[in-house]
Every structure is written in structure tokens, then in C-alpha cells.
Description:
The complex is a heterodimer.
Chain A: E1 25-26, E2 47-52, E3 58-61, H1 62-66, E4 71-78, E5 83-94, H2 95-99, E6 108-113, E7 118-122, E8 132-137, E9 140-141, E10 151-153, E11 166-172, H3 179-182
Parallel strand pairs in A: 1-5, 2-11
Antiparallel strand pairs in A: 2-3, 4-5, 5-8, 6-7, 6-11, 8-9, 8-10
Chain B: E1 13-24, E2 27-33, E3 45-51, E4 57-63, E5 73-78, H1 86-92, E6 98-105, E7 119-124, H2 128-140, E8 147-153, H3 162-166, E9 174-180, H4 197-203, E10 212-218, H5 219-231, E11 239-244
Parallel strand pairs in B: 7-8, 7-10, 8-9, 10-11
Antiparallel strand pairs in B: 1-2, 1-6, 2-5, 3-4, 3-6
Amino acid sequence: xxxxxxxxxxxxxxxxxxxxPPGQYVTDDFPVLSAGPTPHTPLAEWDFTIRGAADRPVxxxxxxxxxxxxxxxxxxxxxxxxxxxLDTVWMGVSLDTLLDGVETSxxxxxxxxxxxYTTNLPLEDVTGGKAxxxxxxxxxxxxxxxxxxxxxxxxxxxxxxxxxxxxxxELRDHDEPGFWETYGYHNYGDPWKEQRYHGD
Amino acid sequence: MERAxxxxxxxxxxxxxxxxxxxxxxxxxxxxxxxxxxxHRAGQHVDVRLTAEDGYQAQRSxxxxxxxxxDHVVLTVExxxxxxxxxxxxxxxxxxxxxxxxxxxGGYFVWDASLGGPLLLLAGGSGVVPLRAILRHHxxxxxxxxxxxxxxxxxxxxxxxxxxxMANVFGDSVDIRFTLTGEQPEGWRGWERWTxxxxxxxxxxxxxxxxxxxxxxxTPFVEKATISLIALGHEPGRVLHVAFGPTGV
Lengths: 200, 249
């Protein structure tokens, strides 16, 4: 290990180190990183669709979506650009709820979004109480720059997997890399294994 | 856009600091000699990792300021007063020190001559760094693609690469403009307005000429510029951008 002469670092005393993955630092800010401009889809035109390798596609309008059973979760999020934010509070619909009753042989999903962003995940990483479509953050409607009206929330993976402005999931028999995955980021993105880039 | 996969297995390596250049009172350029460098594309970045004596490590990403063709890989770092890594890089690092990094990273915010133009570069503050790499590459390959840089800063003292940009060493096909919204020197002939839709309309080519746009800077700057350009009729797919910093939660 190469010591950086004179570097002390500023460990935060108030952050539990067992909750901070390697190479991450804890911030109270909520930095923003996007590949495209913030879309502003009117709620009247918004829907959420599950399509692809399913018996039939299902879709919800905004009002139908809000009527689904929701959950409030407190989770830590970890961005590949090195910041982590602890104890973030979200409200949204569990993907278990959305996928309930969908018959599929698929093992992968590709989330698609307003603005054309996509990200790929194994189906088993978005089921079993591990993923949500969130529309509230900190008790307020999710702001557009943080992915509002609704974003995917998959806190156990790097935050680029928690696609902003999500509009649906495509169920897939074969894995297909999404936007950042095509540009050299890790296909899976486990922050605890520091899977930032291809080959990590 | 051309899609380029990164090489597999990016490993950490130790570079030697060969030169430090004061760009502004809070910004330094760090020229590095690297044992292995696969070459980069203008616009890419690296991850830098610092290690304390007790093994504690901190990582951050920094844009590459040099052209792929330059002798050294150069990073330009702005000191954030409440930062952890940037104050060390700007204030503590000395020539001859070792610096651990890996890269190049990022295949999205890149330009090379094959992508054409016209090329509109919008820089907010230290967001000029990857755009300067693009301008240097443009010069080295003698690209004839018309390019224009609009650089927003608070004051002239905050302008990074000031001499190079003011003298426009990049040649006739490159047009460099400034807007200083905080304070202007005596006899200032550049702009002093925010980069609002009106100013962008003045600076950019009309949408029918399909300029390729690169926007880099603090989040509010980038958000405003990209939204304005798309409202003016530019294709969202040709407005590439990278933002940094908080939104204020």
C-alpha cells in the first residue's frame, strides 16, 4: 500500500464505518449525476409499464400507481462517484407488489426511463424486498433532479442502478447492458465488493 | 455517439508528480509521469486514491486536462475548502511525490475529431478542465471543426488556463468567450451575464447546424444550460453533460 506523504484524511466520527463501503465517503449533501437533462413528464402522461418476457404487459397510470400499497424505507445509498448517504427515507411501491401476478421466465430486467436512460439488473436483485419505485424522498414528493416523479431504488447496488425518471421494466431472458454499463461501468455494481468498473 | 468500452481490469498505479502549476489561487494543475498509460480520449477522467499511514483511504474522480497527445497526463484540481482530497492535492502535494490513480475512465463525455461538430463547449468554473482537454486535442489533430468555448466564472482571477485561453492558442477555428458574473476588470469586453437562454442563443449555432454540445460545471449551471439548449431546439442526444456538486438537497 502506497502511503500518501502527509495525508491524514478526515474520517467522520459520526458515521459507522461498517456502513460505509470501501472507497466511499459519507456526505450530508445529495449530489446529482445524470447523463441527460432532467425530463419533466406531466403526471397525466406518466405511466409505469412492465413488459417483455411476461404473459402480458401491465401498466399503471400515475393515480393508479399512487393507489398501490406503499412502503416507507430507510436505507443507505452509495454512488459510484464515491459519496454515500446514510439513513435516507423513501416512500414507494415495492417491486414485489408490481411483479405480483406477472408470470415470467425472465432472469433479468432492463429498467427504462424518460430521457432514454437504461440500466440492467438480475431479476432476483429487484425481488424479495430489495427494490422499490420511490416517489417520495424525506416525506416530500421526489424532486425532478433526484429522479422525480419516480425513480427506481435498489440500495444494495451502486446508485446508478437506481434509475431516475423510471417508466418501467423490461423482463428479459438474456442480460443486456444498460447505459453506464455500456460505457465501462460494472455490470452488477456491488458497492461492498467495490464493483465500479468492468473488471473490478 | 460512438461507444467505446473501457479496457478490462483497470488497476491502480503510482504516478510521479513531475510538475505543479498554479492556475488560480485555489486551482493547480498536476502533471504526472505514469509507468503505464493506455492512452485516453479527451473528456475522460481518472480516480485518485490517497492513503494515510494507518491505511485509511479516500478516493475521488478528477478530469484529465491534457490532450491524449500531450507528454504527461495532467489533472487540474480545484480546492474545495471543506473537501478531504482536493486540499491535499492543491496544498500538500510536491514535485517528486507519488500519486496513486487508475484510469482512464468514462466513455460518454468524450470527443475526438471523428465525431465532428460544430463543437460548442460550455464551461462553468472548474468544469472547463475536460473541455480544455478537448480543445488541446482539437489543436493537436489540426481539426478544422469550428469550436466555441463559453466559459462562465465569477471573476478573472478564477479563470483557469487564463493565459492559454485569453491568448487563444487553439487557432482560428476556435472561438473563446467569457462571461464574468461577479466582478469584471476595468475595460472588460466580455459578457457579465448569466448563461441564460438569451446568452446561449447568442453563442450557439442554430439547431439546424446540429452543434455537438459539451456542458460541464456545477449542477445548477449544467441543468439550466441543457434545459435552455433543448428548449431552443437542440437535439437532446447531442447535448452531453457532466455536473458536479450538491443540489442543496
